[in-house]
Amino acid sequence: MAIIKAMAESGELSIREVARRGGRDVKAVQGDVYALLLVGIIERSDNGVIFPYEEIHFDFTVRAVA
After folding, report:
1. What's the rounded Cα separation, in Å, for the pair 64 and 44?
2. Residue 13 DSSP label
3. What span, in angstroms and rounded, lies between the C-alpha atoms of 30 and 19?
4. 21 with 29: CB under 8 angstroms?
5. How far apart are CA 13 and CA 49, in angstroms?
6. What is d(CA 16, CA 39) in angstroms, rounded to the nearest whole number?
């Protein structure tokens, strides 16, 4: 969620800039960005990645591991 918030309405960003805005390690952000790319929440651009939506709604449930 922090990555999406950092990218919202920001246009094209490098992964390093996404990490800086989210206050996270670049290597950790790379993995999260890859996962978001795979599910289509963000997209690759010429010089980085982009969140191409004005808004997004998530509807999900989180359960404790038994």
Report:
1. 33
2. B
3. 8
4. no
5. 6
6. 21
Element holding 49 (H helix, E strand): strand 48-50
Instruction: Summarize pLDDT for 19-55 with one digit per residue, the tens.
Output: 999 899 999 999 999 999 999 999 999 999 999 988 8
| pLDDT confidence of residue 39 | 92
**Cα separations in angstroms, 31 against 20, 55, 63:** 15, 23, 23
pTM (two decimals): 0.80
Per-residue pLDDT, 23:
92
Which residue carries 């922090």 as its tokens?
2
Name which of 3, 4, 8, 35 is nearest 19 in CA terms.
3
